[in-house]
Amino acid sequence: MSHAPLTPSAAERWLACPGSHLAEAAAPPAGSSEFADFGTAAHVLFAKALRFDLPADIVTTDPLVLRPLALALDAARQILGSQPFLVETRLPAIAGLPAIWGTADVVGFSPEGPVDKIIDLKFGEGIVVEADTPQLGIYGLLGARCYGVADNGVTVWVIQPRCDHPDGLARPHHYSRADLDRLEAKLREAAAEALASDAPRQAGPWCRWCRAAAVCPVRQAAPDAVPSPLSAWFRPMPRWLAVARS
Q: Which of 77, 201, 222, 233 has the fewest Cβ atoms surrounding its Cβ within 10 A?
């Protein structure tokens, strides 16, 4: 699968550290991981079940996937209701901003036609993802510019069934039309900075997923900038797994 030069999934990093874009481009390519492969497989099942209106137990029998996938599908169907939607939809770049495009898990359309919902599935369990992340904002903007946007804007949703959150597994964030305009202006400025040869670097939590982190002098000079990862041995059992085992 091809990715945008300034991919939405890494937007938190290149917005905070513009220099990371060219630094990563010069770094060796990263191999896949079992966690990434697991998430990719879950997304395929999620898309198939939504596209063909299938229950989770028809698309998988894996006990580690079945329960959270069923919860994710229930949440997505409640969010969408009877409105039309597309799954795994390529959202093209905006004119004059060719480096940013992406693929949305679900794009929902209002009765009048324009997009009014974006849904993003996160199948990880170790790191909580909030709905107001730059990635979902970019999907909302790209969807709005591609299909038009409802009068009251677009609501982006993150569905994260394997990670407990006080607000539940499905969490929204709303963007008005004015919010989308402001986001576009911010992205245009950020993209120009990230593509510049002298783009500055800034160490922070985003370094954890940067391929250039091991050779980055700014990262090495700030050893405490990246929080230690959670240990899988001491993470509490998610509620969905406790329910599944009861």
A: 233
